[in-house]
């Protein structure tokens, strides 16, 4: 069994081993500052009580308030949440925003409860962690299974309990409730910026310009849009129910309509149904995991034929798989760089809330573009200096920034 938190700490050790950092400093980062498990009793629509389990992990706040998403998923567990909070610390440092790392989650499937139940679960969760969060302390954002409406309830419940309206108590909200223009597409858009920067360095030869995306949720679908603008062919897509393949390229609009209508990508006319495993082993240029962690392990990594792995999910590659990718000369663009556009725009939302401003989509995406390009340039210069992987370079960059504030 792959424990994401153990994997995260291994990544840190591997990066720290090639640069000169005080071992005590590195050791401290292996422990979240604090994490809690809470029980959330909720009266369900049928009149019966159910107790849900939730978590919040606050990893490090040297750079600013803890910041990170909220995951609503049946398989959520404490080690996963601790790992995700850890990655947030590094991600926020890489993209250079004044936030530390945090993450939360509740064990349940949000698709299996009613809207009223979803609201009660969310408000119950905030009541249990209220004393630990706040705009200047720890600011929850969206993640798998928890979108804008849930972020509205978090902000509202926090405001209610604190006795004053506090828009900056969460990010990823709907527009009328203090959300930011551009937040919805931000993670995918930011990934597109990084992909462009990477391709401009000619690290892979790519005459065919083929790409496959595992995961077609918020992140995967907006990344697909950016890729389309680049003139690349998306030959395969998948969701939790399976994948589709078309060597001439999948028509995104048709795929979206089909998924809305049938609830799945499979069965899209003109394309072949494939399994998620088959998608990972396709002979293509770029492979994008955009779902969950532990997708690549020692077992399937040797079978990956793509030249580049572009991590839009958090933690999709175990350290063992990473080693295999390096041996096989694959370029891996790490999660803490590739998917940082989401939280970067959460920072813009938080900033607008605090300063009572409203920026246009153009302004937000323009700022995001600059921030992402700079993050890539910063990682790239370290990668060149140490002649190492992009993952280790991103960690070293983050460590330098955190160290400066922590010591
Ligand atoms: N869930 C996103 C991430 O993993 C963003 C969280 C946020 O905006 O706070 O980066």
From TrEMBL:
GO BP terms in the entry: L-glutamate catabolic process
Domain named Glutamate/phenylalanine/leucine/valine/L-tryptophan dehydrogenase C-terminal: residues: 180-407
PROSITE patterns per the UniProt record, alphabetical: GLFV_DEHYDROGENASE
Site annotation Important for catalysis: residues: 143
UniProt GO MF annotations: glutamate dehydrogenase (NAD+) activity; nucleotide binding
Residues annotated for substrate binding in this entry: 67, 91, 346
InterPro entries given in the database record: Aminoacid_DH-like_N_sf, Glu/Leu/Phe/Val/Trp_DH, Glu/Leu/Phe/Val/Trp_DH_C, Glu/Leu/Phe/Val/Trp_DH_dimer, Glu/Leu/Phe/Val_DH_AS, Glu_DH, NAD(P)-bd_dom_sf, NAD_bind_Glu_DH
Catalytic residues identified in the record: 103 (proton donor)
The entry's keywords: NAD, Nucleotide-binding, Oxidoreductase
Family statement: Belongs to the Glu/Leu/Phe/Val dehydrogenases family.
Protein name, as recorded: Glutamate dehydrogenase
Lineage of the organism: Bacteria, Candidatus Nomuraibacteriota
């Amino acid at each position: 069994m792959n424990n994401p938190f153990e994997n995260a700490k291994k990544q840190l050790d591997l990066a720290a081993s090639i640069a000169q950092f005080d071992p005590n400093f590195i050791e401290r980062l292996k422990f979240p500052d604090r994490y809690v498990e809470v029980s959330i009793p909720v009266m369900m629509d049928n009149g019966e009580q159910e107790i849900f389990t939730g978590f919040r992990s606050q990893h490090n706040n040297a750079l600013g308030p803890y910041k990170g998403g909220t995951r609503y998923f049946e398989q959520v567990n404490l080690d996963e949440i601790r790992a995700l909070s850890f990655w947030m610390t590094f991600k926020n440092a890489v993209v250079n925003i004044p936030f530390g790392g945090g993450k939360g989650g509740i064990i349940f499937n949000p698709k299996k409860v009613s809207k009223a139940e979803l609201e009660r679960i969310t408000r119950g969760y905030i009541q249990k962690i209220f004393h630990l969060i706040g705009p200047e302390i720890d600011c929850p954002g969206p993640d798998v299974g928890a979108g804008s409406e849930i972020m509205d309830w978090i902000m509202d419940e926090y405001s209610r309990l604190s006795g004053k309206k506090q828009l900056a108590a969460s990010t990823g909200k709907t527009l009328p409730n203090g959300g930011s223009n551009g937040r919805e597409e931000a993670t995918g858009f930011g990934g597109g910026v990084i992909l462009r920067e990477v391709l401009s360095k000619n690290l892979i030869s790519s005459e065919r310009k083929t790409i496959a995306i595992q995961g077609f949720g918020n992140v995967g679908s907006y990344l697909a849009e950016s890729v389309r603008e680049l003139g690349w062919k998306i030959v395969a897509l998948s969701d939790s129910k399976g994948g589709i393949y078309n060597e001439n390229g999948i028509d995104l609009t048709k795929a979206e309509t089909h998924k809305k209508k049938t609830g799945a990508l499979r069965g899209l006319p003109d394309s072949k149904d494939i399994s998620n495993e088959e998608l990972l082993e396709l002979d293509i240029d770029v492979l994008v995991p955009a779902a969950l962690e532990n997708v690549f392990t020692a077992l399937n990594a040797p079978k990956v034929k793509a030249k580049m792995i572009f991590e839009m999910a958090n933690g999709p590659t175990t350290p063992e798989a990473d080693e295999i990718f390096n041996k096989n000369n694959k370029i891996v663009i790490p999660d803490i760089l590739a998917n940082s556009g989401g939280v970067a725009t959460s920072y813009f939302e938080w900033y607008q809330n605090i300063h009572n401003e409203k920026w246009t989509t153009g302004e937000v995406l323009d700022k995001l573009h600059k921030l992402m390009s700079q993050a890539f340039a910063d990682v790239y210069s370290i990668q060149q200096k140490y002649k190492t992987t992009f993952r280790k370079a991103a960690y070293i960059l983050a460590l330098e920034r955190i160290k400066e504030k922590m010591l």
